[in-house]
Amino acid sequence: MRKRAASASGSPVSIDLAGLIALGDQRLPAGWRSTRQLAAQSGGYRSRFRGRGMEFAEVRAYLPGDDVRSIDWRVTARRGKVHTKLFHEERERPVLLALDYRRPMFFATRGRFKAVQASQLTALLAWQALSRGDRIGGFIFSEERNLELRPQLGKKAVLQLLRQMVADPVWQRSPHRPFAPQQRLATTLQRLHRVARPGSLILLLSDFNQWDEPVEKQLALLGRHCELGLVHCFDPLEAELPPAGSYRLSDGERDLTIATADRRLRQQYQHNFIQRRQQLEDFCRRQHSRLFSLPTDGDPLECLSGVKGKS
C-alpha cells in the first residue's frame, strides 16, 4: 500500500529537502485530473484558459491590460465598443506556486504547522506539474522577504523551488516575536504580477490572514489573464472552539489560558470563521476560481478532492 503524503515528513514544525523530494512518488487524486480542475496534459494541450495562443476561442469586451494586438477592429467598429480576440492556450503552461510563510502560518494545535502543510502540498503540485511537462515557478513571501522564481521547465526548476523553501530564513526565526507585517497582503500580491504571465496557472497557499477588498482586487486582476486557485490553510481551533472547559496554550515561552464555557462565545467564534470562509467562497465563485481546504490535521492529497467556489 502506498504511504499517504502526510506521512512523508516526520516533523510537524519543520520541513526537510529529503521529505519534499520523496513526495515526487505521490500522485494527485484522479478527480484532480479528470475534472480538469487545475491540471493539463503534457505539451501541446488545449486548456480552458483563454489567452494568447494559436486557436481562436471568442471575442469579448476589451479590458485594461489586454494585449492591444488582439483587438478585433471589425467587431469594435460594428458594436461601437473596443473588443479583443481570445485564444486557447496551446503550449506548456507556466505553473506559479505562491506560498505564504508569514508568521500566522507557523501555528497548529493539531497535526502540523500550516506552513508545513502548505509546503508539502506545494511540493506535490510542483512534482505533478513536472510530470505534465509544465513550467514551474514559485513566489514565497513572508514578513522578511519576497522570493520570486520564474517558471522554468524540468526537474531542476522543482528542486530549486524545494531548496529555497527549506533554506528560507523563516524556519530559523524566533517563534515568540508577534505578528507585525511590514506590508499588507494586498501589497505583497502586487508583486505576483512580476512573475505571472498571461496563461499561467497560479495556486496561492495561505491562511489568508488580512483578507480584505484590496486583496480581492489584486487577485481579481491576476485572474483576468491567469487561472487562479486558492488553498485555504487553517487549524481546527481557528474554525471552532473546543467544548466547554479551560484550556492552556503555549508557544514554548508564554502560556495562555482560554475559557470556552460561554455557549454564545463559542457560537460567535464559529460564526466569524464561517463568515470569513464564505468571503473566500463568494470571491472564487465570482472569479470562476477554485477553492481548496487544507486543515493542519488533514492529508494534503485529500484536500484536492474537495473543491468550492467554481460555478
Give an overview of the whole structure.
The protein has about 300 residues and is α/β, with parallel strands linked by helices. It folds into two domains: about 5-40 and about 90-310, von Willebrand factor, type A domain (Rossmann fold, 3-Layer(aba) Sandwich), CATH 3.40.50.410; about 50-90, no CATH class. The protein has ten helices and twelve strands. The strands form three sheets. Strands 6-5-4-7-8-11-12 form a seven-stranded mixed beta sheet, with helices on both faces. Strands 1-3-2 form a three-stranded antiparallel beta sheet. A two-stranded antiparallel ribbon has the order 9-10. The radius of gyration is 21 Å and the shape is globular. Residues about 1-10 and about 35-55 have low confidence and may be disordered.
Summary keywords:
single chain; 311 residues; alpha/beta; Rossmann fold; 2 domains; 7-stranded mixed sheet; 3-stranded antiparallel sheet; 32% helix; 22% strand
Question: What is the structure about, briefly put?
Answer:
Helices cover 32% and strands 22% of the residues. The chain has 311 residues and is α/β, with parallel strands linked by helices.
CATH class of the largest domain: Alpha Beta
Q: What is the second-level CATH architecture of the largest domain?
A: 3-Layer(aba) Sandwich
Q: Kindly report the average pLDDT value.
A: 80
Q: What is the strand content?
A: 15-25%
- Rg, rounded, reads 21 Å
Structural class: alpha/beta
Query: Given the structure, what is the number of helices?
Result: 10
Task: Record the strand order, biggest sheet.
Answer: 6-5-4-7-8-11-12
CATH topology of the largest domain: Rossmann fold
Number of strands: 12
